[in-house]
């Protein structure tokens, strides 16, 4: 049996990951109504820590709790609860592995706003089937600089509270990703136009985070290989950004792709891609040719053979997401040679949209079916957080019902606060 997965990885900052398997970042939706960590997240990440991965990356922690990706996000924005952030970090490192905080701002892709707006580089509507159209608010330069400062503040807090690294989220169409795209960023000032200007928000954020945490603390970036949209962030542009990131002393670059509007990362993947494994592996290999930073590939990795092929081909870390929502010990068993496959748990998915949206258009039905796959995994995380076991036999329809009821309760709790920032 090959021991490629078990080999340690020394990062540019000097830190060492104990093996080549990572729990990829997954939005959890488990925070309280004040967007603070709690016992549910502690319970979930302790279990993942004991599951064998050398690296865990948290779901996106927001830098500004006025704007959330979903109501159950953790945010660090002078909202207290640092004792729970410390407990969260301690649980996630309890087995001696690394635990990095993913830091994010949702921008125009937020689901919760506490001031009635969603900030973005430009006033370009988000076009997602099933979501009412709206025009985001254009960010003035002072707000862009404030967001960059917030990333640094949250990164420093993560280190102080016991996290062993941070990852900056600049993918999937969230705020920093939207600055990179010529489709969502049509500014004519120093933050838009040519790629060097569109990449400025990301690069300045990386610099602010590095300054906040120091040279010996791991700083990673999650980056789209492409937006897969006409006029959006292209693979050729990605290669230039990767070159620039290499000059900024980052420690791990996670390769992904797509946005809410152009969603290969969400939608059904072609059978040929599933057989090959690694939805973005071809793009990652192109990126490898210019990267001076260790690379992590996430998306569709399911077999030991496929993971080892990716490592032999130049990838440095393998990210696992959906399999770990049910089989929290899968990394331990892969490392021990007890299994050759990380199950996908998708045989009964997606939900037939006609069961709950009779009048949906074809595009809306497709989006709902895709979304129902994610919802099923969200519910598995909630079960673990609440001290229950995952439930692989849970139907897609029941998971969707649980998800809708839970998100509604969380939204109502947010709305009931006496002040938006109570």
What does this 3D model show about the protein?
It contains 14 helices and 15 strands. By secondary structure, it is an alpha/beta fold. It has one domain (4-347): Alpha-Beta Barrel (TIM Barrel). The strands form four sheets. It has an eight-stranded parallel beta barrel, surrounded by five helices. The chain is globular.
CATH homologous superfamily assignment: Aldolase class I
Lateral strand order in the biggest sheet = 3-4-7-11-12-13-14-15
Q: Helix-strand pattern, N to C?
A: EEEHEEEHEEEEHEHHHEHEHHEHEHHHH
- Structural class of the helices, strands and pairings? alpha/beta
Find the count of extended strands (DSSP E, 2+ residues). 15
The name of the CATH architecture is Alpha-Beta Barrel
CATH topology: TIM Barrel
* Distance, first to last CA: 55 Å
If helices are DSSP runs of H or I spanning 4 or more residues, what is the number of helices? 14
What value does the Rg take, in angstroms?
Answer: 20 Å
User: Tell me, what is the CATH class?
Assistant: Alpha Beta
Sheet with the most strands?
A: 8 strands, parallel, barrel
The helical percent reads 25-40%
Low-confidence stretches: 264-270
Mean pLDDT: 90
Quickly count the domains.
1
Beta-strand residue fraction: 5-15%
What general form does the structure show? globular
